[in-house]
Amino acid sequence: MSDLGQNAGPLAGVRVLDLTSVIMGPVCTQILADYGATVIKVEPPEGDVMRHAGSKRAAGMGSMFLHVNQGKQSVVLDLKREADIARLREMLPAFDVLVHNVRPQAMRRLGLDDEAVRKLNPTLVYVELTGYADGGPMHGRAAYDDVIQAQTGLADLFARQTGGPPQYVPALIADRVTGLTAAHATIAALHGRQHTGRGDTLRVSMFETIAAFILGDHLGGASFDPAAGPMGYSRLLTPHRKPYKTKDGYIAAVVYNDKHWRSFFEAIGEVSTLEADARFQTAAARADNYDTIYGYLSDVMATRTTEEWVALLEGADIPHARVNRVEDLLDDAQLRAVGFFDERNFGDVGQRRIVARFRSPAARNDLATPAPSLGAEQQKLDTEYGRPETCDAASIGKGCGDASNCQRYQP
Prior knowledge:
InterPro entries: CoA-transferase_III_domain, CoA-Trfase_fam_III, CoA-Trfase_III_dom3_sf, CoA-Trfase_III_dom_1_sf. Residues 366-387 are annotated as: Disordered. GO terms for molecular function: CoA-transferase activity. Keywords: Transferase. It holds the Pfam family CoA_transf_3. The protein is an alpha/beta fold. The chain has two domains: 15-213 and 337-409, 3-Layer(aba) Sandwich (Rossmann fold), CATH 3.40.50.10540; 244-322, formyl-coa transferase, domain 3, CATH 3.30.1540.10. The protein contains 16 helices and eleven strands. The protein has helices at 24-34, 63-66, 82-91, 104-109, 114-120, 145-151, 154-162, 173-196, 206-218, 234-237, 258-267, 271-276, 283-287, 290-301, 306-315, 333-337; strands at residues 15-19, 38-43, 72-76, 97-100, 125-130, 200-205, 244-245, 250-253, 320-322, 341-342, 353-354. The protein is elongated and about 80 Å long. The protein starts with 14 loop residues before the first strand and ends in a 57-residue tail after the last strand. The model is unreliable at 1-6 and 388-411 (pLDDT under 50).
């Protein structure tokens, strides 16, 4: 592992072997890179398929790839070739974490399942990202964001709220939430290894992760046995929970607690309505009447312009925002003020980097590099990522199973 450098990030010195592609896995490993880990992305000769997705200024450097692979290094290995599989196995003792989203049966065929890898590196944190958890009838199937949104009930929630057809969230929410979950699980496993000296195997599945994500809000009455009511959180499912139409546009506003409601009625000069209607007065009463109270807001918001509401809600200290388009984020005053976009590192690809994922006095956002071109660090396969000097070269890559042969990597 590399030496810790000043302001290098809390995961400086951690080496991650990244066998992931598309979105879910790369989100996980980019977060680790953001925290200072050295992430070596292993790609097939044709590269990660996401290199071709989205807008691009250079071949193989599409926008979708750029924003989940920042701060990584790319090497090429063809895992259809025995020599490249052996080369990958030779690299394993040099790493702290291996992350993959290859189907488990394929990893077993390659001799890269957790049991086989553990013989080469007993202290490795092995992270397996799948569509469905092992032990279930769907384990081993491919999963995609749209399928998971449908399968977990997320798409149907739109239908329940609006009375229209099921819809997908127009963002890869299942991929990204699962990648985020895997990242924090990996960090926890690395922390645990400091105390036990042992590696760990983490299995993070998209279906189960998103099911938990959705049911945390909507398990509702089924949280109890026998059930205490229907499933679904009524506040999120009322058809009035949406950007409110104003005289000339739309605005988001959350009139939520007792203070907000009194401030709101004072601002619009209707305190008598609040005092006359118990449904607005307490959190318990509002929870039983979300359709009514949100419907009231919907009607009232239509009586003023967006600018009028911004001024009024600002003065009343009520959370609100204009309804932006994604294009508006490029010039958003908040994002600009905190340095959310790093535009100093354009390079040949012209990448605008998103860097403000977390803030810490111990880490600098400007250490991250743009996403790598395919095989950009290929020369390091025979230098920095080669066989460790203190290991038994005859046994590395052949499942020696004896950690004493790898003294450099003892806990």
